[in-house]
Amino acid sequence: MSEQHLNKKRETIASAIHYEASYDLLKEKVILVTGAGAGIGKAAALSFARHGATVILLGRTTEKLEAVYDAIEKNGWPQAAIFPINLESAVMHHYEALAETIETEFGQLHGLLHNAALLGKLGPLSQYDPDLWQRIMQVNVNAEFMMTQVLLPVLRESSPASIMFTTSNVGHKGRAHWGAYAVSKFATEGLMQTLADEEDGISQVRINCINPGRVRTAMRAQAYPSEDPMTLKAPEDIMAAYLYLMGSDSLTINGHTLDAQ
Ligand SMILES: NC(=O)c1ccc[n+]([C@@H]2O[C@H](COP(=O)([O-])OP(=O)(O)OC[C@H]3O[C@@H](n4cnc5c(N)ncnc54)[C@H](OP(=O)(O)O)[C@@H]3O)[C@@H](O)[C@H]2O)c1
Asked: Ligand 1 within 6 A of 39 CB?
């Protein structure tokens, strides 16, 4: 790729935070969102539905997923679906059942937003609880790998399709006391880059990471309990880059990490 072409691509990526999605950007698209019951995942699910997508709401707390389902219905957006699953205990056959359900119910999948994650406790690695380490790696990395692997065939068949992983600032540069969470985000970026390179040229599935930045959610409050949450953007304020990566204006973007702020 020429330097000029590369610069153009960098400019496009940087401007994703100001992206203005058309009202029907995701019309007739089927999109799965993990951790769709709260925080950024909830805002993304609602935003995708508002722009025409049929959203599959995946998460561990059924009541929270039902509340999002109801909000979608109340607004008259395409009817959503709910798939409750605990990513901490799910094993391969649960993911196979998810893939089968999607094949049977929808026959297609155009988007997958990996958003669910566990923060765990912050503290030095020298004292980090090995059981907590395993739990965080299971939810933040292993679940993403297994789910992506089983859903790749339907994503390829439905292409162009978009897989989005969620990273964090602590996933690019190690930071003291962020433990398994930081390491899991480095792994997520590695997963994204490896898969993006593998799919490049053989399918029309694009794979990228999104970095939400500081956002007013339960996870952020857990990490920074003394921070004034009103100084932070709300999840719905950062949806431009999510819509950009999910919709057809990002067809040539593959293997990148985009900042949502
Ligand atoms: N907020 C920030 O400032 C910030 C900054 C950088 C990156 N991020 C990333 O953005 C993403 C969303 O974070 P958030 O701030 O919106 O966090 P959040 O409010 O804590 O939401 C996390 C979501 O993940 C779900 N989840 C957690 N464990 C799960 C499990 N075992 N099985 C199924 N679902 C599970 C939660 O479900 P329940 O509600 O049912 O528990 C919830 O819906 C994460 O990947 C996070 O690392 C956030």
From this structure: yes
DSSP state of 235: G
**CA 201 to mean position of chain CA atoms:** 23
Q: pTM to 2 decimals?
A: 0.97
| Residue segments in the chain with a per-residue pLDDT below the cut of 50 | none
CA 137 to centroid of ligand 1, rounded, Å = 14
**Is 181 among the catalytic positions?**
yes
Sketch out the chain's domains with CATH numbers.
25-259 (3.40.50.720)
Task: Check pocket membership of 37 for ligand 1, CB cut-off 6 A.
Answer: yes
pLDDT of residue 197: 98
Contact 217, 39 (CB under 8 A): yes
Q: What is the per-residue pLDDT for 202?
A: 96
Check residue 50 and give its pLDDT: 98
Strand extents, DSSP E, 98-236: 111-114, 161-166, 205-211
- Residue 190 CA: distances (Å) to CA of 46, 61, 108, 138, 150: 28, 29, 26, 16, 19
Q: Is 238 exposed, middle or buried (0-12, 13-18, 19+ CB in 10 A)?
A: buried
Q: Can you tell me which residue has the tokens 């433990």?
A: 179
- Residue 101 φ then ψ, to 5°: -60, -45
Residue 46 vs residues 4, 50, 85, 236: alpha-carbon distances, Å: 37, 6, 19, 9
188 phi/psi in degrees, rounded to 5: -60, -45
